[in-house]
């Protein structure tokens, strides 16, 4: 389960816009308060969709046993989405940053909404949740797994806020440097991760569909 879920979550965590927005918040008035509101929106989106998707895929009845699996066509559909996303990200023109003036006008509800929108599940995060759903572990282990992959998914906004509370000036310098690096290589890493998982799911699903269901 986690062997597939965790790498996909780390791939999803490479999200330069999230780091860029947190970096902006940390140099604005009331930095930690505003950053925490933004993170709260991200947490609501990630965990809300995460728990809903996992238990829906499992039929909301994990007590039915570990032998029931998510249909292969779900693997195939998600693999196609991941591969399509990789191609889209690769050929999409780079987006320019929003004006700082517009960002400063955001209130707390606006920051919460941006967190919700920016951390609506990406294809790689969906792949991570899908891996958890396929495992059909106990309810407790499933919940802990969703919490783990959600925490990984939000690493680039969690770490700077925690570090800023301890080393504010050093954190700003490091975040700026990391954001520059992600601006150069983040797209390539995301494309490779999404493409690799997409191809893996497509091949795996195709094999299961060709072989047909196991004999009962």
TrEMBL record:
Which InterPro entries does this entry report, sorted A to Z? Answer: Gap/Sap
List membrane-spanning regions.
6-28, 35-58, 70-91, 106-127, 139-167, 188-210
This protein's UniProt keywords: Membrane, Transmembrane, Transmembrane helix
Q: Does the keyword Ribonucleoprotein apply?
A: no
Q: Is Membrane among this UniProt entry's keywords?
A: yes
Q: Which domain of life, per UniProt?
A: Bacteria
- Protein name per Swiss-Prot or TrEMBL: GAP family protein
Native source species? Actinomycetospora endophytica
> Species lineage, top-down?
Bacteria, Bacillati, Actinomycetota, Actinomycetes, Pseudonocardiales
């Amino acid at each position: 389960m986690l062997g597939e879920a965790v790498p996909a979550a780390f791939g999803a965590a490479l999200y330069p816009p999230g780091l860029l927005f947190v970096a902006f918040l940390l140099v604005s008035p009331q930095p930690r308060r505003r950053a925490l509101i933004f993170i709260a929106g991200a947490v609501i989106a990630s965990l809300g969709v995460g728990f809903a998707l996992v238990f829906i895929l499992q039929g909301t009845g994990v007590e039915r046993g570990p032998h029931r699996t998510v249909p292969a066509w779900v693997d195939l559909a998600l693999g196609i989405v991941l591969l399509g996303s990789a191609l889209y990200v690769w050929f999409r023109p780079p987006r320019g940053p929003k004006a700082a003036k517009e960002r400063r006008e955001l209130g707390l509800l606006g920051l919460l909404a941006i967190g919700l929108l920016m951390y609506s599940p990406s294809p790689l995060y969906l792949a991570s949740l899908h891996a958890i759903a396929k495992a059909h572990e106990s309810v407790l282990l499933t919940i802990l797994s969703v919490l783990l992959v959600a925490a990984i998914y939000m690493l680039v906004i969690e770490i700077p806020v925690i570090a800023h509370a301890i080393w504010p000036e050093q954190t700003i310098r490091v975040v700026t440097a990391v954001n520059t690096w992600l601006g150069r290589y983040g797209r390539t890493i995301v494309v490779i991760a999404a493409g690799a998982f997409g191809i893996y799911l497509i091949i795996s699903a195709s094999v299961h569909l060709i072989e047909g269901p196991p004999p009962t």
